[in-house]
């Protein structure tokens, strides 16, 4: 089955537990016997820069990986530390937020994002937050970005309310102050950037993202998933 390698963890002297994200099973942990041996055929391809065809044998407590054949190599990701940082962080988010359940749309999201990361010559942090935004959508957490979550007004959208799940107009932002969960004022450019983050046009996101939009999407994801997510290194 096709899979991306999210994580490797040492187990005994020559073995490792490999966390994969597969098209058929979602996230799954497998044991790779002897993968740390110098002559291991699988070790070289158990890297985040490969889409592999993984041969998995079911076990009583944990599945076993017997073979990994490269299907696509995203070697251009290794050309910059910035791309490597984005890939590591995004895969940490996938590992933290996904489960052992078949989600073909998430698998395709990972592939589409890696296709872009591998081909773009310039990069900034916005595409990583766009990936997180789209992952939230696939998980069922879509924010309201076109009308106020309190009064449904489409005018004077003034703030973003992560805990409330969307944007707030100016009047409601003054009336609905939350002592525990902050409402964040945003500019028009930030609102457009947040909307872009929830699309899959990675280039548009990179060209029009803002630091505020990235931060608010991250806060939104942490609040609604109730997970402490790895922070992306700023560059």
Describe it for me?
This protein is of the alpha+beta class and 235 residues long. The protein folds into 2 domains: 73 residues, Beta Barrel (OB fold (Dihydrolipoamide Acetyltransferase, E2P)); 158 residues, de novo design (two linked rop proteins), CATH 1.20.1440. Helix content is 36%, strand content 23%. It contains 7 helices and 8 strands, in the order βββββαααββαβααα. It has a 5-stranded mixed beta barrel. Strands 7-6-8 form a 3-stranded antiparallel beta sheet. A hairpin with a 5-residue loop joins strand 4 and strand 5. The chain is elongated.
- Quaternary state of the chains: single chain
Low-confidence spans: none
Category by helix and strand content = alpha+beta
CATH topology of the largest domain: de novo design (two linked rop proteins)
**Helicity level, as a percent range?**
25-40%
From the spread of the alpha carbons, the general shape counts as elongated
**Proportion in β-strands:** 15-25%
CATH class of the largest domain: Mainly Alpha
The tally of strands reads: 8
User: In angstroms, what is the radius of gyration?
Assistant: 20 Å
Q: Based on the structure given, which CATH architecture of the largest domain is correct?
A: Up-down Bundle
The largest sheet, given as strand count, sense and whether it forms a barrel, is: 5 strands, mixed, barrel
- What series of H and E elements makes up the topology? EEEEEHHHEEHEHHH
